[in-house]
Amino acid sequence: MVIEVDPAWAPGSFLTLLSDAERDELLSLGTTRKVPGGRHLLVEGRQDTQVEVIRQGHVKVTTTVGGAPRLLAIRLPGDLVGEFAALTGNGRVATVTTCGDVVATVIRQAGFLRFVNEHPTVATQLTVAVGRRLHWANRRRTEFTAFPVQVRLGRVLLDIATSCGEAVGDGVQIRVELSQTELASLIGAREDTVQRALRDLRRAGLVRTGYRRIVVLDEAGLRALTEQAEWI
Q1: Rounded distance, CA 159 to CA 143, Å?
Q2: pTM of the prediction?
Q3: b or e along 195-204 (b: 16 or more beta carbons within 10 Å of the residue's beta carbon)?
Q4: Which CATH architecture best describes the domain 147-228?
Q5: May I ask the CATH class of domain 14-142?
Q6: N or C end of the chain, less CB within 10 A?
């Protein structure tokens, strides 16, 4: 079966860092599959080592802390998942779950490593992609202690709306369903504190929320709120 894929890679994703020839060669190494929403592409703790390239849709990356899942990141079209296990040979450090239908190309560890070793520029771009992820994670950790919850929440919502947003009549709707528990884990806050912060953002006319749905109504206002905050 041939799966039609729209090559609309997310800005800054791994595939956008490669040349057309490198991208085509990488994708030719694997098998492309369509996975329904709510399915695991990778599971924390397992010893498999394949890499998956997200080609359509979005996935959530989670880890288990104290028996409960904690959201670490959202990956977009053009992103790699599973590269750490492929590079190190160690078990999976996180679970990757589809958000709605996802098209992904599965590449075996041996083929992926051979491709990276044969293309020094690809190895460099892989380092760049990993570095960006670490920078994002480190920035989040710094904000845990530097800014109040409302500011941290606003910054995360802006980041996600920029990467996973869709223009609607009165704003930008985040296309990934996010629970308050997941938002709390992203910004290092308690769920009840996130509830209050969302309430304040709604009252200020900056966002509209529904069940696992968020629309950013006033992007400029939300950005102004996050940029004017002082370090605490």
Answers
A1: 14
A2: 0.83
A3: eebbeebeee
A4: Orthogonal Bundle (1.10)
A5: mainly beta
A6: N
Cα dihedral sign for 82, 85, 88, 94? positive
Q: How far apart are CA 124 and CA 58, in angstroms?
A: 25
For 95-128, the pLDDT digits (tens) are 999 998 999 999 999 999 999 999 999 999 999 9
Q: Helix, strand, coil shares of the chain as percentages rounded to 5?
A: 45, 25, 30
- E strands, the chain, where? 31-35, 40-42, 51-65, 68-75, 80-81, 95-107, 165-168, 171-174, 207-210, 213-216
* pLDDT tens-digit readout, 78-98: 999 999 999 999 989 999 999
Structural domain spans, the chain: 14-142, 147-228
Give yes or no for a contact between 107 and 30, defined as CB atoms under 8 angstroms apart. yes
